[in-house]
Amino acid sequence: MKKLINDPADVVPESVEGFVQAHADIVTSSGDPESLFVARAGGAVSGKVGLVSGGGSGHEPLHAGYVGVGMLDAAVPGAVFTSPTPDPILAATQAADGGAGVLHIVKNYTGDVLNFETAAELADAEDIAVKAVVVNDDVAVEDSLYTAGRRGVGGTVMVEKIAGAAAERGDDLDTVLAIATHVNDNVRSMGVALTACTVPHAGKPSFDLPEDEIEIGIGIHGEPGRRRIKAAPADEITDMLLDPVIDDLGLSSGEQVLLFVNGMGGTPSSELYIVYRHARARLEALGATVARSLVGNYITSLEMQGASITVLRLDDETTRLWDAPVHTAALRWGV
Amino acid sequence: MKKLINDPADVVPESVEGFVQAHADIVTSSGDPESLFVARAGGAVSGKVGLVSGGGSGHEPLHAGYVGVGMLDAAVPGAVFTSPTPDPILAATQAADGGAGVLHIVKNYTGDVLNFETAAELADAEDIAVKAVVVNDDVAVEDSLYTAGRRGVGGTVMVEKIAGAAAERGDDLDTVLAIATHVNDNVRSMGVALTACTVPHAGKPSFDLPEDEIEIGIGIHGEPGRRRIKAAPADEITDMLLDPVIDDLGLSSGEQVLLFVNGMGGTPSSELYIVYRHARARLEALGATVARSLVGNYITSLEMQGASITVLRLDDETTRLWDAPVHTAALRWGV
Amino acid sequence: MADLGIDWALSWVRAAAATVTEHREHLLDLDRAIGDGDHGENMYRGFTAVLGKLDAAEPSTVGDVLKLVATTLMSTVGGAAGPLYGTAFLRGAKAADTDALDAAGVAAVLAAGLEGIVARGKAEVGDKTMVDAWTPAAAAAQHVADSGGSAAEALRAAADAARAGAESTDPLVARKGRASYLGERSAGHRDPGAESSALLLETAASAAGA
Amino acid sequence: MADLGIDWALSWVRAAAATVTEHREHLLDLDRAIGDGDHGENMYRGFTAVLGKLDAAEPSTVGDVLKLVATTLMSTVGGAAGPLYGTAFLRGAKAADTDALDAAGVAAVLAAGLEGIVARGKAEVGDKTMVDAWTPAAAAAQHVADSGGSAAEALRAAADAARAGAESTDPLVARKGRASYLGERSAGHRDPGAESSALLLETAASAAGA
Ligand SMILES: Nc1ncnc2c1ncn2[C@@H]1O[C@H](COP(=O)(O)OP(=O)(O)O)[C@@H](O)[C@H]1O
Ligand SMILES: Nc1ncnc2c1ncn2[C@@H]1O[C@H](COP(=O)(O)OP(=O)(O)O)[C@@H](O)[C@H]1O
Ligand SMILES: [Mg+2]
Ligand SMILES: [Mg+2]
Ligand SMILES: [Mg+2]
Ligand SMILES: [Mg+2]
């Protein structure tokens, strides 16, 4: 394992410290390594619904990179690939509460769901109204009552941006929740890994992949995917990712979509644009219009090489909210 | 070699095609694969000095990611790690010319210098006034009259942003050149590689690096560095990169700097912030103020793991120009 | 046939911390195979924190010890294991309402722990989770209690059953937790949480001299 | 002792394209070691383009052929090699102002090519560049011309000298081009441009039947 780190145990606190210093105009941190969270530099916005997300670290810029005007109020980074405990989630919830309640944006993993649930109960005991949206956009995983269900992956960025814009314009908690849920209902993703990644404290790659094989249907935690296949041209891989997304979304001609091609952390953006190009051509051939685009490393898996494709069905309202100004470390426009 | 590409020969045109589609609000391309360049969607700005840069591909988002208001007018992507030929540089120069002349921003590599020189001669023959700034900020390479001199690396981003802002506010060609030269004179960089990268048409890594060794003093073309050492903690590596930068810059207490920690393409941003944290502490211990920061993949070497540190000495004017609005695919603020 | 009091509880927890440290890498490897490669680190972080708190706190009953473990795991482990083990220990603490546990007490604590895990995680036997270790363990302890055995015998039976339960997860296709994302590919690997559960119950039995 | 005319020039260029294709990977490897791993691809792209143009254009003199090569390399190779070879062939084309080259003509073309490379790249012998192949090649051709040899003999001498010159770059520490960034580490590797120069001159000699 070669990484630009010091002690593996210090990766998250040191990284967050550097992040907060570099973006001091946007964010601040709790400072407390025992209860670490990142919040807007200005503190909670009075009267605004607070948005809190979090989860294991290793997916940067998710979530701390999305704290700022127009998006999150606070983010809670756990250990690498490990959901944070309820304490810092509670503390972040308190820091984000401007009196209008707080929305938890939770990716659908057992650990995240359980820890956020507990934090919400604790917040409730302190008279903070908390609602939660559980993002589960990964079509690689079968959705069923009897399983852990789908994972939350790329769609999380869409939910955070659009719900963030709704909160920023003054929508109340139920409305923000409804919008977040609406986005989650209309977004699907699927990913591919060309290489594994190495969790710092594990020191070994999360799986062994021969030089000529790739993993289709991976998540964002370095786990193996649904199946392993021979390496293939980008256009073919793009088809393998996009087909189930289109299918599950029930996308049809005439619809408007946001196409999001995400890098897993170790793939150059030039390759992401090659994937984007073919995915866009496919969507257009279907009669859909790619009205908005996002291409880059937005929800990653450490240094993994690979990509995911996310498609969000747009309507006028979500488009407007997507376009609304945002000022975070990782997404910024209109300001 | 595993990459999200189709035919290695199509990497650059397909990637540029996707890039231009995804950012159609900002950029357009010549469309001609024989003479490929990317230019502002709106065309040349009448009366404004045009800024053109370019070079081998594989350093994305450099340079096409910096085309847009407040930065470049056109960018010329060559084959991977290969300077473009004079023809597309000339075509881009013509496209960028708003009647006030064009500044070529050239990284100091023999190929780039020669091809831009020829293009400038050809442009001159068409009565376009062209000046060039040659960026050479890499302190890993000794500067001497008898060698190829220093490479242009991270400082290029600073030159493009700041000269771009000067051109945007209406400075004339000589003034923009003077500002670009001033930035180049006050910026220094040095880089480290944890892994090699693989040029698509080569199909093999650019060098072999054992699991416990790293290369200090690398450039951005996958070339080996000045020396190979055992892997070390991030803080130590940061010292090795920063010491010669501080030294060569002659930085002293009380000065203001911009600290730019750049990822080589395959390193997660969490690690870059760990490097940033220590570099910042070192600069502050010296009595310098880190007044501006940039952390991320801004000038890369395909999927190489590693980082470079760039320090730019700031004054009021360069700070103002750095802060000026910019609207490109890879850098955006104030708009 | 001594009942198990505070001394047993303290030596169990210390032994558990040592076992988790010793098996950190093995649990990491199990979780790398079908999860996200952190279970060993999570348990190690949690039990190291428990050791730290144990010295400062002065627990006087089995219930105190279990509660301390519960809150510490809850606030330091994170992931799925943190809330699940946390809830298990919390409910176990509530069930341990006497100074010393007899076999029935051991069975009650394990039943309460299992109930907590199921309440939070909604997994059933066969889903390839820690429930596959806890369910037979709780049943075995109850069986010993019903047939008049000692607390130590109940723990030994529970530990053996948990071990068998953990091993039973090897061929299963996961339906809960991260391994479920792998579908069929999860078969042929042991569930890390079932393994750590078996390890913890083994130290509980050993600490009871069984 | 036939002079070398259009037929020689055409067969040289076709043979050069074949040689560059054959040695593409080898030139890539040389450039991976001390450069950026593209020289083989650059030369391959350039000479493939030359072949394409050759069919359409109808060059009638040696100068025409060399000029076509020059402009095509200039506009398709890029990098350092593109302008350097482009200029070399352009100046060589100007020097080839007769229908057929005798030994003096060969020497003049090579001298002009070398001059072009030096004018653009400012390298000296010993800097570990293609100049280390071209300088002895031009001198050897001149020597044959001075001693009354044939054009083919001049090319053979040039090719042999270029080969030796390319080999002479092995121990050198580079002072120009990308390899110079490596400092001492550039020693022990052949300069890719010197190698491709030797290959091109070898095909020139072979095409002349020498
Ligand atoms: N729904 C569930 N019910 C019971 N146990 C579960 C459930 N989900 C996960 N687990 C247990 O948690 C273990 C994983 O713990 P850990 O790796 O620490 O957390 P995470 O999965 O969040 O990374 C699994 O091996 C499994 O035994
Ligand atoms: N200043 C120079 N003078 C002469 N030849 C040079 C000079 N710089 C580079 N070269 C030659 O160019 C070759 C490299 O060509 P190539 O790899 O195609 O271009 P690049 O270096 O731009 O990647 C070197 O091996 C060397 O022979
Ligand atoms: Mg985890
Ligand atoms: Mg090159
Ligand atoms: Mg895990
Ligand atoms: Mg080269």
Overview of the molecule:
The complex is a heterotetramer, with two copies of chain A (about 325 residues) and two copies of chain C (about 210 residues). By secondary structure, chain A is an alpha/beta fold. Chain A has two domains: about 10-185, Dihydroxyacetone kinase, domain 1 (Rossmann fold), CATH 3.40.50.10440; about 185-320 and about 330-335, Hypothetical Protein Tm841, Chain: A,domain 3. Chain A is about 30% helix and about 25% strand. Chain A has helices at about 10-20, 85-95, 110-125, 155-170, 175-185, 235-250, 270-285, 315-325; strands at about 25-30, 40, 50-55, 75-80, 100-105, 130-135, 185-195, 215, 225-230, 255-265, 290-295, 305-315, 325, 330-335. In chain A, strand 13 (about 325) and strand 14 (about 330-335) form a beta hairpin. In chain A, helix 2 (about 85-95) packs across helix 3 (about 110-125) and helix 6 (about 235-250) packs across helix 7 (about 270-285). The mean pLDDT of chain A is about 95. Chain C has about 210 residues and is mostly helical. Chain C has one domain: Alpha Horseshoe (Serine Threonine Protein Phosphatase 5, Tetratricopeptide repeat). Helix content of chain C is about 70%, strand content about 0%. Chain C has nine helices and no strands. The mean pLDDT of chain C is about 95. Chains in contact: A-B, A-C, B-D. Chains A and B meet through helix 1, helix 6, helix 7, strand 11 and strand 14 of A and helix 1, helix 6, helix 7, strand 11 and strand 14 of B. One magnesium ion (MG) sits at the interface of chains B and D.
